[in-house]
């Protein structure tokens, strides 16, 4: 199987690490893939780190990786806004410092990052000063999310020409140390409810993430393998883009989940069945070493 | 009228004059929403105080049913008085915060504490009902990495909270991992209008965030859930056939009326427009009929001529 593949797109959480613990054997797998001439890309829906922060984390864990190998959601969202939305003007950002940095790197100015506590009375909130250059509200993971930020987003979105873009819809975000907290999907839902409209989302299962990698590196989808741990977002993306898909069982989805999709007979769900599965990515080691 | 309702067809008729007089004679119980129906912010709608006092003088039972959970009931009484509704007593006021406390105390009979995402209105009602609660005790430097969880939390109650933070969302979803921990929402209104027509985010935003985080659905106390009518019925002898629900929001007030088997009236001084009511009436989806009012008035002040006799 590995011989038929030139490029490997690897999801991070649940595939090569859990929190800050590498899945045993995974650094060797990645490094051997590269040694065998494969291109390896790290893809994640997590928007809390810049490409450089991810590359540093990967290096610390023993993975051979550079900034250019990483496609985190902060970077992909900035690319989406630049290339797809062709954004003019500023962004009201509910998101992390990493998102701010990636946006600034592509020349997009933002307002809103950081704590934003409430003060004053209801009339004040409805009349918050709005930056007239803001043309889009962007929602990513934000530990400083508050009623005031929700309110500001609503006031901007009262203008029907103001766009609403979400980084991803994941319901939980794994933290260092193994805990998990509510994910970007929760914050995005609050904003969508207030504004009574749906956001455009950048992350998986939207195929923009794959397009971003493919267009930068000229990839042939028939010779790409996606290695992931989630059936509904990740495998579906792989199927939709015509990639080979490999499920590892060290993360969210199980074999039983995959079998249930396969037996369902429902065309949508059959798209969530992986081509291959392994207990852990370490199972690829023998094939790579031999 | 009752026959028309049995077939799911609602008239959506604008009425006036003698039609209103007939309706007032036929009904004994009048349930009013507040915002957009009897007042806008701090201003009474012209004629509304006289309508309420005339109904009471004519021996009608008047109740106020509001999703607004930001004040305790005694505070509402002050507001009624301030705006000229001088005959209104606390017992006539049913807010979603008051009814949430009733639910926890009398229906769920919760043993243990309630984790509250909400303001003074909700907290005060819980206090008065004798229900212990926690929330808002986070140290200023508390973060999602080191927050303390209270023991013995048996319910999470979400209401309008202008001090809402991500940390509260994280804590609430931790408590709700226990399937025996109740999940309650005062209401699910997505936004509220202010006096000048601008809008603010509502409880519905916070509730939906928590539903996504937990994969659970909240039990809703406020309109359109029929629970607040059950609260009224448990305290007063009410016959649904003798009731008229008067509101300004189709998806909340009219649906509430339909869910409780009450006749409904839309007043056009608030959120919903006649055009929208007609679109629901003419739509193919039978579910949309529940949003359609039986009657429509421009303002409840249109009741006033009916009292001149």
TrEMBL record, chain A:
Q: Does the keyword Magnesium apply?
A: yes
One GO molecular function term of this record is: metal ion binding
Q: Which reaction does it catalyse?
A: sn-glycerol 1-phosphate + H2O = glycerol + phosphate; sn-glycerol 3-phosphate + H2O = glycerol + phosphate; O-phospho-L-tyrosyl-[protein] + H2O = L-tyrosyl-[protein] + phosphate
Q: Which UniProt keywords apply?
A: Carbohydrate metabolism, Hydrolase, Magnesium, Metal-binding
What cofactor does this protein call for? Mg(2+)
Q: Where is the active site?
A: 11, 13
Cellular component terms (Gene Ontology): cytoplasm
* Protein name according to UniProt: Glycerol-3-phosphate phosphatase
Automatic annotation (TrEMBL), chain B:
Q: Name one GO molecular function term.
A: metal ion binding
Q: Which InterPro entries match?
A: HAD-like_sf, HAD-SF_hydro_IIA, HAD_sf, PGP_euk
Alphabetical list of CDD domains matching this protein: HAD_Pase_UmpH-like
UniProt keyword annotations, A-Z: Hydrolase, Magnesium, Metal-binding
Listed Pfam families: Hydrolase_6, Hydrolase_like
Residue positions annotated to bind substrate are 192, 223
GO cellular component: a single term: cytosol
Manner of cofactor binding, per the entry note? Divalent metal ions. Mg(2+) is the most effective.
Q: Which SUPFAM superfamilies match?
A: HAD-like
The protein's superkingdom reads Eukaryota
Q: Which residues bind Mg(2+)?
A: 33, 35, 248
Please give the cofactor(s) recorded in the UniProt entry for this protein: Mg(2+)
Enzyme active site: 33 (nucleophile), 35 (proton donor)
Which family is annotated? Belongs to the HAD-like hydrolase superfamily.
Its recorded name reads: Pyridoxal (pyridoxine, vitamin B6) phosphatase
Instruction: State the organism of origin.
Output: Hucho hucho
Q: Please spell out the taxonomic lineage of the organism that makes this protein.
A: Eukaryota, Metazoa, Chordata, Craniata, Vertebrata
């Amino acid at each position: 199987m590995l011989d038929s593949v030139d490029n490997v797109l690897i999801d991070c959480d649940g595939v090569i690490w859990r929190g800050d613990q590498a899945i045993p054997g995974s650094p060797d797998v990645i490094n051997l893939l590269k040694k065998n001439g494969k291109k390896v890309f790290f893809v994640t829906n997590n928007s809390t780190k810049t490409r450089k922060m991810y590359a540093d984390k990967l290096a610390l864990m023993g993975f051979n990786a550079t900034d250019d190998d990483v496609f985190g959601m902060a970077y992909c969202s900035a690319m989406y806004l630049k290339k797809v939305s062709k954004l003019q003007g500023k962004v009201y950002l509910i998101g992390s410092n990493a998102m701010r940095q990636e946006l600034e790197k592509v020349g997009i100015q933002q307002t809103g990052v950081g704590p934003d506590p409430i003060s004053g009375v209801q009339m004040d909130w409805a009349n918050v000063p709005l930056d007239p250059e803001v043309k889009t509200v962007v929602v990513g993971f934000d530990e400083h999310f508050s009623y005031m930020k929700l309110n500001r987003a609503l006031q901007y979105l009262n203008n029907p020409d103001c766009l609403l873009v979400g980084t991803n819809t994941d319901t939980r975000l794994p933290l260092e140390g193994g805990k998990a907290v509510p994910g970007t999907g929760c914050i995005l839902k609050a904003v969508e409810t207030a504004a009574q409209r749906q956001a455009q989302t950048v992350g998986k299962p939207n195929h923009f993430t794959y397009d971003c990698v493919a267009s930068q590196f000229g990839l042939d989808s028939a010779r790409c393998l996606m290695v992931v741990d989630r059936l509904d977002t990740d495998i579906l993306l792989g199927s939709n883009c015509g990639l080979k898909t490999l499920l590892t069982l060290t993360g969210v989805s199980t074999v039983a989940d995959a079998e249930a999709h396969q037996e369902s007979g429902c065309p949508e769900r059959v798209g969530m069945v992986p081509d291959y599965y392994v207990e852990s990515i370490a199972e690829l080691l023998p094939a790579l070493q031999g | 009228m009752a026959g028309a309702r049995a077939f799911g067809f609602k008239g959506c008729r604008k009425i006036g004059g003698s039609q209103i007089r007939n309706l007032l004679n036929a009904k004994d119980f009048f349930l009013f929403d507040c915002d957009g129906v009897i007042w806008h912010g701090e201003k009474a709608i012209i004629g509304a105080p006289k309508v309420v006092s005339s109904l009471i003088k004519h021996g009608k039972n008047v109740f106020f049913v509001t999703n607004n959970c930001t004040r305790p009931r005694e505070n509402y009484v002050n507001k009624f008085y301030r705006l000229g509704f001088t005959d209104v007593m606390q017992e006539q006021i049913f807010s979603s915060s008051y009814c949430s406390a009733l639910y926890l105390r009398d229906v769920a009979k919760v043993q243990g504490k309630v984790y509250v995402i909400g303001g003074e209105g909700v907290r005060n009602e819980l206090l008065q009902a004798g229900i212990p609660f926690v929330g808002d005790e986070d140290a200023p430097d508390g973060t999602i990495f080191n927050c303390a969880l209270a023991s013995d939390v048996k319910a999470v109650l979400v209401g309008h909270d202008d001090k809402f933070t991500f940390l509260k969302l994280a804590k609430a979803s931790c408590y709700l991992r226990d399937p025996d921990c109740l999940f309650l929402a005062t209401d699910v209104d997505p936004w509220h209008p202010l006096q000048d027509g601008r809008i603010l985010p509502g409880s519905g935003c916070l509730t939906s965030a928590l539903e996504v985080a937990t994969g659970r659905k909240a039990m809703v106390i406020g309109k359109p859930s029929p629970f607040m009518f059950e609260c009224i019925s448990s305290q007063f002898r009410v016959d649904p056939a003798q009731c008229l629900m008067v509101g300004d929001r189709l998806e909340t007030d009219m649906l509430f009326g339909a869910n409780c088997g009450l006749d409904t009236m839309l007043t056009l001084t608030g959120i919903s427009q006649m055009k929208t009511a007609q679109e629901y009436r003419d739509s193919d989806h039978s579910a949309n009929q529940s949003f359609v009012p039986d009657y429509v008035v421009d303002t409840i002040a249109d009741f006033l001529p009916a009292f001149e006799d």
